[in-house]
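Chapter summary example.
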Amino acid sequence: MATPTGPLVGYRVLDMGGPLSLHCTKLLADMGADVIKIEAPSGDESRRVPPFKDEEAHPEKSLYFLHFNTNKRGITLDVTKPDGRAILLELCKKADVIIETNRPSRAKELGLTYADFAAVNPALIVASITPFGQTGPWKDYKANDMAGIALGNLLYLAGEPGEPPLQPPGEIAYGMASTYGALGIAIALYHRLDSGKGQHIDVSMHECGGHIAGYFIPNYGYTGDKPARASRKGEETDLYDPYKTKNGYARIFIIPVEQWRRLVEWMGSPPSISGPEFEKMAFRRKHPEIVVGAIAEFCAKHTKEELYEQGQKRRIAVTPINTAGEFVEMEQTKARGLFVDMEHPVIGKYKQFGPVPMLMETPGGIFRPAPLLGQHNQEIYGGDLGMSSDDLVALQAEGVI
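The structure predicted for these 401 residues follows.
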């Protein structure tokens, strides 16, 4: 195992969160923080999320879990039991940050609120990342990523006018809530340098989804106008859609007339679109079948990489649309060393996403694979809390660890 490096080396983070905070704790771990993942003895729910290596549903073979938990140490602990709660509060005495995703009423029921944590460690920073925050009538509602983008306006804006919204891939709302959470933690740690005080960070996934919805919400706040989707089929846009190439798809984006002229020249000035009337965007939008037909015929003769390289030379915005494999293997990501070769005791060899963002003076890194279930129980309970082997056996027998 490599020695951790990065700006957060020396800080300890207790990770008792669910899906909402996975990306947050990964960001901190990749920057060198000692992140201790606290799982129920039955295992974290993310261990049951596909895809799985060899398509075998196994708690140590979830590639989803592997990605989000690299660099962390892992322990098992049932915080719903009195002994488990007592152990968690003992761990808090030596921690800098604790991240949790319980509904406020559940945290109160467990006796694991900010007040409970601060009572044992006033310098502790507690980040609560929840669907709707710590206050308001919805504070105890459950919600998944889809709910986050739907309620925050992002889903409404996706798709063609008059048609159902289109769900984007990935976990945008979870990712944004986690990113804002990590930012809040960094700011709170900086504040603590002078004040010596911890604080509670209240992150609402719902609010984070709305916060990144571009100019639509500020525009509504100013004008009261409800935003409308822009059609990709009619006269509202111009050359925005992907075109099929010899090996996939590429997107062409044309706005200035100079770019249009360079594109037509690059295409060999086909008579169907070479007239001066086509230099006007309004005219092109009225005759999309002619424009799209000519460009589609041209793109079909080239690979997306050829179109990108030639477009760059002509100062035309052409973007290849990558698959996951093409993203991993592309020259740009390899040149930046974005992926690290790792080996996991169950998964075997694989490529792990490196730290993002890249800090030049204090870079983080990938130091260890995701922990096996309860892998560091002895190391942390025995080493940090001074528990004996008999203590651990008894706790395990009682279902506490």
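To summarize the output: The domain at 242-327 is CATH 3.30.1540.10 (formyl-coa transferase, domain 3).
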